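Hey, resending since the last one bounced:
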Amino acid sequence: MKSFQNLLLLQNLYRLKALGFEYSDSFSVNQISSNEKPRNLDELTKNISTCHLCDLSKSRTQSMSGFGNPNADIMIIDYTVSLGEDSTNSYYCGRSGEILTNMIENVLGLKTKDLYFTHAIKCKPLNSNTPSTSEWDSCKDYLFSQIEFVKPKVVITLGKDAYAKVTSEDDNFQSVRGHVIDFKDYKLIPIYHPNHLLRNPDDKKIAFNDLKTIKSCI
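The structure tokens again:
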């Protein structure tokens, strides 16, 4: 039965070829099987850029895999990709990006290219909704693999949502903000998100002290 079906398929292919269609006998989607774990950060980045594991792939302009030094001492993790980041393919865009750049350059004494910046959720949420649990489940292996490949000394989470996703802890954010937390083989320090500082400029003094704590760890 199977050989008869194959014969019909082959006859149909020849018929289509006679009509002017072209086909190939075999093709490869990726050089590396989707079942294989990426062997380095470059392979992981390629996987993220072509990911279609959840519905966010339908709403994004591109997936945001990460930016910066792959051997950075500091890794910054934001919660999710903003509309501005998605449309410009920039990790430091808008007023929030300006604040974060100033924090890095003026307090830590580094350049943005010296750090590694990524998101817990790699794509812009659909219609600016809060990402679902299943969407986080699709992304979390990417994030934790990035941490393993970069091997930073310090992991900075921006805001309570990024902290909650990375640590799976629902602690009061104010009780952990600015503290040095032992996280796997790294030091994790949650700080205010730049968007929070835009809305609450008086907290910039607190953020400044948190950045000094970060600087003392590198």
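The beta strands are 67-68, 74-80, 116-121, 154-158, 181-183, 186-191.

Sorry for the duplicate.
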